[in-house]
Amino acid sequence: MKILIISTYDIIGGAARAAYRFQECLLEAGIEATMLVRHKKSNNKKVKEIQFIPHRFLNKVLRYIRLRGERSILKLNKYNTKEYLFNTSHLPFHPIIKEINAIKPDIVHFHWVCFDTIPIEDYKKINVPVVWSLHDMWAFTGGCHYDKECGKYKNECGKCPALNSQKENDLSKWVWKRKKNTYLKIKNLTIIGLSKWIAECAEKSNVLQSPNIKIVNLPNPTDTKLFRPSDKKQERKKLGLPLDKKLICFGAMSSTSDPRKGFLKLAEALSLLDTTDTELIIFGGKEEEIPHLKFKCHVFPEYNITDEKLISLYCSADVVVVPSLQENLSLTISESLSCGTPVVAFHIGGNSDMIEHTYNGYLAKPFDVQDLCDGIKWVINHHQHDELCKNAREKVVKEFDYPVVARKYIELYKQILHNKPLY
After folding, report:
1. I need a labelling partner for 122 at 20 to 30 A (CA). Which of 11, 138, 299, 388 fits?
2. In this structure, how many other beta carbons lie within 10 angstroms of the beta carbon of residue 344?
3. CA angle 416, 118, 14 (to 5 degrees)
4. Closest CA to 176 of 202, 142, 153
5. What are the CA-CA distances from residue 409 to residues 58, 202, 237 (Å)?
6. What does the angle CA 138 – CA 187 – CA 418 come to, to the nearest 5 degrees?
């Protein structure tokens, strides 16, 4: 069985890191898995970069020009860059189908694929079964990656909030129609909802209503051998963090600038927290974007975060808080739990797939900052905090570990290749 994994990046960003680990997971299970990406940053020989032309420097130049072309259409449509991420994937004459044919896979498995990784119309040119893991909502919207509860994807996009549009036939409807027309022509498409929530969203989407499309719920794997508990004092010493404080950790890529990550909600919750022995860790953000907080704040910027440092941060913390306003299957949650650190988050999206309320963390009422504050206090002051940590680790080992998830995907691939009903 030969699987081709396609992603925009290999190790830059949460979705890319998840796809990269997914390849590792398959390789460890004995599956031949190659990764094809638009931007390669790793030294992994099993990862190939899409070549527009066979010249390294000119290839980079052409990629940049195409990306600018991809972005130019958004500028003409008053795209709300501060609140939304939006992609059209519209540029033709892309070499990806030629690259796919050269690799000759049995199955093509897409992950996060935007920024001119593949034009929408090229999906129907793939002659082998297609699997697509949804890291966000883009596959079934008119271009946004999270709809912020707009809900228009369920019927037909138009008058798009991300574009500040009042026109029914706007850019979002054009993208939506292109997806609808393309998906109907794909002979064998399996959509993987990485969380139960996003699988349910996909099932409600008009654009994915086709007899050739199957939707199933399967998670991404977590490397529990890499993300594992470590001595809290030693990790704090390594990072220069205090040994005598309760530490709250918050972080993600663009954690302080992306409104969806919920940093302002966290700041509100922390203002309600009445304690003098607590400090805050922030990773993936910028110090200048952090408002005045009554707690001392230790900032680790996004350009300096490796897996090793992430593990140290998780293991140093007494609790990790993920206050996202919309969330699929958070890599931060799975990594933190795997390191044995309980997580507090809002009860939204796929958070409940990983957090069991008051067992390995706390699920606060959606966007209730007082309940978020209560959850933080409940975890850091819990009289059996070690038990929470043990439960956190066991949840991931049982349900999200490499061998556990690999078995499920291999069975899915076999069912697809032999045209058997999917579970």
Report:
1. 11
2. 30
3. 80
4. 142
5. 38, 19, 40
6. 110
- Where residue 226 falls among pLDDT bands split at 50, 70, 90? very high
Give 372-414 as a DSSP string.
HHHHHHHHHT-TTHHHHHHHHHHHHHHHTBHHHHHHHHHHHHH
pLDDT tens track for 65-82: 887 777 777 766 666 667
In three-state secondary structure terms, 358 is coil
DSSP state string for 116-145: SSS-GGGGGG--S-EEEEESSSGGGSSSBS
What is d(CA 42, CA 134) in angstroms, rounded to the nearest whole number? Answer: 23
Q: 85, 115 in Cβ contact below 8 A?
A: no
The dihedral region occupied by 93, where left means phi > 0, alpha psi between -120 and 50, and beta the remainder, is left
Tell me the C-alpha distance between 200 and 140, whole Å. Answer: 12
Side-chain half-sphere exposure of 302, counting CA atoms within 13 A: 16
Structure tokens at 417: 């290749």
Distance from chain centroid for Cα 98: 28
CA neighbor of 117 nearest in space, from 13, 266, 264: 13
Nearest to 413 by CA among 173, 128, 37: 128
Contacts of 388 (CB under 8 A, 6+ apart): 342, 359, 360, 361, 379, 382
How far is Cα 19 from Cα 35, in angstroms, rounded to an integer? 9
Bridge partners, 216 (sequence order): 192
Answer yes or no: are the C-beta atoms of 310 and 339 closer than 8 Å.
Answer: no
pLDDT tens, position by position, 80-122: 667 788 999 998 889 999 999 999 999 999 999 999 999 999 9
